[in-house]
Amino acid sequence: MADLYHTSQPPQELWPAKASRNNGTDAEALERFKIREICEGWGCYRDAAEWNNYRSMFHSDAYITTSWKQGSIDEFIKASMEGFALGSTFMYIQHRIIGMTVDLQGNRAVSKMKVTITCRFTFEGIEVDNEADCCFFYLLEKREGKWGISFITLLFNKDKMIPVQPGKCFSIPEEEVMKYPSGYRYLAWCEAKIGRPPKMDLNAHGPEKEILYSKCKDWLDGKVVKPNLTGKDIVNI
Q1: What φ, ψ does residue 30 adopt, rounded to 5°?
Q2: For 199, which of 30, 80, 110, 231 is 20 to 30 Å away at the CA?
Q3: For the chain, what is the largest distance between any 2 Cα atoms, rounded to a whole number of angstroms?
Q4: What's the rounded Cα separation, in Å, for the pair 134 and 203?
Q5: What is the DSSP string of the chain?
Q6: pLDDT tens digits for range 126-165
Q7: pLDDT tens-digit readout, 7-49
């Protein structure tokens, strides 16, 4: 069987050597704390539908990329609100925040946050949970003395399905699941099943990882970065 979860060190030239991380000056540590507080709001605010608090994390031109929705921050909030309103015909999304790092370089920063996304789906009257281990990538900028998120995307490491009621399962055709990227093949199948075609280049074990690391370094170096952050194509925004 092929290695579905190949993991290797990113190329050395993509390491942001000029960035501050781990210790540094007290002033740098304070800035990293501010950034961490902002990024942790993704799960804490969004999952509770605290939309005013959630919106405060972002610059007005922020662009959001998830497996099920890509667009401006205001478009993403609208889609999330609609998702909550759809109830069991959509997916009930929650986030377990595990830990994070911050690379700080001048007025820009990149934060990587380990997360387990849990999504509850209902198929044929049976509730099932998908749990997807992933890493969120936040690209932030300090404007007029205030940090805010400019871009978010993520890479998926692995996922699984769990029955909510023991002994009551929903069968998923393996030949269909294997058509999707290895890091989130069950989540992608579920999203397609509910009519939300998944974004297909968010796999931590594919070429998109190196593409994203390159764009993160460009961001810290002050260069212009445009989505798609995990592909070579350019998204019109």
Answers
A1: -65, -40
A2: 110
A3: 56
A4: 9
A5: ---TT---PPPGGGS-TTSB-SS--HHHHHHHHHHHHHHHHHHHHHTTT-HHHHHTTEEEEEEEE-SS-EEEHHHHHHHHHHHHHHGGGS-EEEEEEEEEEEEEETTEEEEEEEEEEEEEEEETTEEEEEEEEEEEEEEEEEETTEEEEEEEEEEEEEEEEEESSTT------HHHHTTS-GGGHHHHHHHHHTT-PPPS--BTTSTHHHHHHHHHHHHHTT----S-TTSSS----
A6: 999 999 999 999 999 999 999 999 999 999 999 999 999 9
A7: 999 999 999 999 999 988 999 999 999 999 999 999 999 999 9
How far lies 225's CA from each of 85, 184, 218, in Å? 34, 26, 7
Residue identified by tokens 């092929």 is 2
Picking from 153, 148, 110, 118, the residue whose alpha carbon sits closest to that of residue 135 is: 153
Contact between 42 and 136 (Cβ < 8 Å): yes
Q: How many CB atoms are located within 10 Å of the residue 179 CB?
A: 11
**Which of 9, 7, 10, 8 has the alpha carbon at shortest distance from 214?**
10
How do residues 55-91 score in pLDDT, each as one tens digit? 999 999 999 999 999 999 999 999 999 999 999 999 9
Are 91 and 193 a contacting pair, CB within 8 Å? no
Residue 230, phi then psi, degrees to nearest 5 = -110, 15
